[in-house]
Amino acid sequence: TEHMHDSTTCGGFEKCTHCADTHARALQLESEINEQIERLGLILNEKRMAPTQLGEFLGIGFDTLRGTFWLSQAKAESLAEYASDLIGKGAATPRELAKYRGKMNWYAICVEGVALLTRGITNDIGAPTCNSEWDKSKPLSANALSELLFWSKHLPSMALQAKPIWLLTAEQATARFHARLPGVTAILETDASHLGWGAILRLQPDPLR
Prior knowledge:
Layout: H1 17-39, E1 42-45, E2 50-57, E3 60-63, E4 68-71, H2 73-89, E5 91-92, H3 94-106, H4 119-125, H5 131-134, E6 138-139, H6 142-158, E7 163-164, H7 170-180, E8 185-190, E9 199-204
Helix pairs in contact: 2-6, 3-4, 4-6
């Protein structure tokens, strides 16, 4: 006869075979889910059981648990090698220089000094108006050469230097908030932990999501 389960009288998984089997299956599934989370490069927040991301996207590493991001070592070495290749040739087309400047601008959030130390490269790009001008190689100027030398030498050592994701600390944000709205209480909740992506802001006495 099939066992008719009564959750009010079974005594829990320690005494009930049905509950014990269900509990064992639940633990097995939990273990499988945790393995999948780890394969995806996620960290499990044991306190709230919410995954927090640790990974890399387009050469930028990020850790939302610690609130930091950085230029990956592989990408830093690739950019330095590209600069070295241009230095070795002593000349470059506007297209090659624009490609390098574009990459550097993308990673400027991770690397300090990009805007300042690509001015010579920008000047060498000039203002080409057709493909023949974009693909015409010209000798590198002294300024552009100096900038490329700097990046080829220093970019690898700039990799993995963590920078904060958050622009303001909780204390700074609170101070600015109260300066604009005195007497109003703000409650900020995230879906992962005190450091995480996404949040809900509630204002008291007038709730606002």
